[in-house]
Write a structure and sequence with these properties.
This protein has 446 residues and is an alpha/beta fold. The protein is built from 13 helices and 19 strands. The chain binds S-adenosyl-L-homocysteine (SAH), iron/sulfur cluster and FE3-S4 cluster.
């Protein structure tokens, strides 16, 4: 491809890791058309905003970004060029028509299940505005290209998409559609290709990843635990992670994988949302707090050092002081290494948005502050406990300063190391010398 036919592609990604994976795949499928990814939108020939609809602010951010990009688009036009403007992802799926109406300069809107059709859509968009919000997950994975642009030493691989759980606050079942698992062969082949292009760590992704039930070539259904073993066996793969899990789908095979498979990292992100049985019920989470405690106990039996993470929603409709205290109590009892927490955001079309007893913003933010202070303290303590100890790091980023390398420990902690050799892409043992709430400083162990 010479300079003249090469086109600049700028992709901005919000939301979950599956969106990051999808953005990589969009770059893969557009590459044969001459598009090469660039770091900034100025002078781009195509811009894709890969969006998230999980909370209210996410949509606002998309519209303000579109406003900024429009200036680049106008400039490009003044210079005789054209910048194709596209909105993809979950906002596109949920609000495609609204975006088209409100932002007439947007050329394309397409949902997460249509990325395999990108080459055709790009051609169509030269003559008309394109909206595509079909929902057929199978065809997306069947038809995405077999080539992967290298993701570097740590890579994402979507194995499952969509969700059938219908938690009452969540838009995912509507934006990503019904649960779908890729076949074992497809996953293993893609993992091998990622290993061939330099990946040493693979994170298996799904909105509900441990509901994985892909088939092998004999038609037998595999669980996630079994799939982790197969990916761990691939030459060059030293670490396997997975995200995001649902407590209801934590089966014994997955729990055992943490005990039996050395490549299965001692880190578990297991969202619970609330510690109150009453709220777990109105959230339609399909389990109570005792099940959560039981899982944690079982996982710790096989892997006592496992680092635990979760997601919490504060201020769900009907949350009383007691419900909130139940959540605080659960956090105290489990002791997390890290966690995400959010103020409940009513999403149009979800059952919880119409529930009585919506809470005032003031109560919601007071509770969030208390909850985050407790989680921050636990994270700080978890990190402090590793000072003086050895951890293993895969270095997948260069730091801002010379000789500075960044990566993650087996427990998913961010680790900074200064070294006189090029550590990028290496997996090394390091000794932790200092810690903060969010990261560790370490030095190479000779
Ligand atoms: N599949 C994952 C979560 C996907 S969404 C699971 O089942 O846990 C990521 C996180 O966003 C959720 O765990 C939840 O904590 C948060 N979230 C989802 N909908 C939300 C809403 N309406 N308001 C606030 N937070 C929300
Ligand atoms: Fe959303 Fe619940 Fe499905 Fe997670 S399990 S994606 S929170 S509906
Ligand atoms: Fe957001 Fe869609 Fe992921 S709503 S969290 S990008 S599945």
């Amino acid at each position: 491809m010479n300079e003249n036919t090469q086109k600049k592609l700028y992709i901005k990604t919000w939301g979950c890791q599956m969106n990051v994976y999808d953005s990589n795949r969009m770059a893969d499928i557009l590459s044969p058309l001459g598009y090469k990814q660039v770091e900034a939108p100025d002078d781009a020939d195509m811009v894709i905003l890969n969006t998230c609809h999980i909370r209210e602010k996410a949509t606002d951010k998309v519209f303000s970004e579109l406003g900024r990009l429009r200036e680049h688009q106008d400039k490009k036009k003044e210079n005789g060029g054209k910048m194709l403007m596209a909105v993809a992802g979950c906002v596109a799926q949920a609000e495609g028509d609204f975006i088209m109406k409100r932002a007439p300069y947007v050329d394309m809107v397409f949902g997460p299940q249509t990325y395999h059709e990108l080459p055709e859509m790009v051609i169509r968009a030269t003559g008309e505005r394109v909206v595509n919000t079909e929902m057929v997950t199978e065809s997306k994975f069947d038809k995405l290209p077999e080539e992967n642009i290298s993701q570097g030493p740590t890579a994402f691989l979507s194995i499952q998409e969509g969700c059938d759980k219908f938690c009452t606050f969540c838009v995912v079942p509507y934006t990503r559609g019904a649960e779908y698992s890729r076949s074992v062969r497809e996953v293993v082949d893609e993992a091998k290709r990622l290993a061939d292009t330099g990946a040493r760590e693979i994170t298996l992704l799904g909105q509900n990843v441990n509901a994985y039930h892909g088939e092998d070539e004999t038609g037998k259904t595999w669980s996630l635990g079994r799939l982790i073993a197969a990916v761990a066996d691939i030459n060059g793969i030293e670490r396997v992670r997975y995200s995001t899990s649902h407590p209801r789908d934590m089966d014994q095979e997955l729990i055992d994988a943490h005990r039996d498979i050395p490549e299965c990292m001692p880190f578990l992100h297991l969202p619970i949302q609330s510690g109150s049985n009453k709220l777990l019920k109105t959230m339609n989470r399909k389990h109570d707090r005792d099940l959560y405690f039981k899982i944690i106990e079982d996982v710790r039996k096989g892997r006592p050092d496992i680092a635990l993470s979760s997601d919490f929603i504060v201020g769900f409709p009907g949350e009383t002081d007691q419900d909130f205290e139940d959540t605080m109590d659960l956090i105290e009892r489990v002791n997390f290494s890290s966690a995400y927490s959010f103020i409940y955001s009513p999403r149009p079309g979800t059952p919880a948005a119409n529930m009585q007893q919506q809470l005032h913003d003031k109560i919601k933010s007071e509770r969030l502050t208390r909850l985050q202070a407790l989680l921050a303290e636990q994270q700080k303590q978890f990190n402090a406990n590793t000072v003086g100890k050895d951890v293993t790091v895969i270095f997948d980023r260069r730091g801002r300063q010379d000789n500075q390398y960044l990566g993650r420990s087996e427990y998913n902690q961010a680790v900074h190391v200064v070294a006189n050799e090029d550590l990028f892409g290496q997996m090394r043992k390091v000794r932790v010398t200092a810690s903060t709430q969010s990261s560790l400083t370490a030095e190479l162990v000779a």
